[in-house]
Design a protein that fits this description.
0% strand, 56% helix, 5 helices
Length: 140
């Protein structure tokens, strides 16, 4: 009987070791998955808590926002439709930014026509990106 008890203990120890390995592997796998998820979801722009507004440039940061939300109405293709307001290209956008309209419109400031017109307001990050671009000297 004593040998049987020893055998059971050995089996239990092996099972416990196996369970520890499985748990440890699952735990490490979960950590890796979570860190990969965090990195892949690490915000670069719209709709998130993190908003990098350092070294904002027109081509890298502002242009994608304009293409997504503004060009349907305010591109050179639709000048007549948009009362002659074109945000197509750096020079056009810089002109409207220098005049103060770009920031006022996207922030929906009092006295400005909120843009995009008839659609939801841009995310805080997108607005902050445009404001940072203007405040940092409107780099191309």
């Amino acid at each position: 009987m004593w040998d049987t008890d020893r055998l059971h203990i050995k089996i239990l120890k092996k099972e416990m070791l196996l369970y520890k390995k499985i748990f440890f592997s699952a735990f490490i796998g979960t950590l890796i998955t979570m860190s990969a998820c965090i990195k892949s979801n690490q915000p670069t722009g719209a709709g998130s808590d993190f908003c990098d507004t350092t070294d904002v440039t027109f081509s890298k940061n502002v242009l994608p926002i304009l293409q997504s939300y503004c060009y349907a109405c305010h591109s050179d293709k639709n000048v007549a439709f948009s009362s002659g307001i074109s945000l197509d290209g750096y020079n056009n956008t810089k002109g409207w930014a220098d005049a103060g309209y770009l920031i006022g419109d996207v922030r929906h400031d009092a006295g400005f026509l909120g843009m995009p017109y008839g659609k939801p307001k841009l995310s805080a990050c997108e607005i902050n990106t445009i404001v940072a671009w203007v405040n940092q000297g409107e780099q191309p």
